[in-house]
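Hi V.,

Quick status before I head out on leave. The structure for the redesign project is tokenized and pasted below; the design run finished overnight.
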């Protein structure tokens, strides 16, 4: 499989000068979860919501963060 970018979490986090640990703390998830999400691993919808809110964004902006949102819904 190709190295297609699945989300913009790392870019958005770095633009805000946040460490993985700080984003994880704000989102209420582990640093390992943030690392996996940034690498493109699948995650639950609730985890996506927590990350989006921790980045200071509205859930309505989810497609700016998670590009394959509709395909990932469960």
């Amino acid at each position: 499989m190709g190295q297609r970018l699945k989300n913009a979490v790392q870019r958005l986090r770095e633009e805000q000068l946040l460490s993985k640990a700080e984003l994880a703390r704000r989102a209420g998830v582990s640093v390992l979860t943030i690392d996996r999400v940034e690498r493109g691993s699948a995650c639950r919808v609730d985890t996506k919501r927590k990350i989006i809110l921790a980045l200071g964004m509205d859930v309505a902006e989810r497609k700016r963060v998670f590009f394959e949102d509709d395909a990932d819904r469960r």
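Above is the designed sequence. The two ends are 22 Å apart (CA to CA).

G. will cover questions while I'm gone.

Best,
W.
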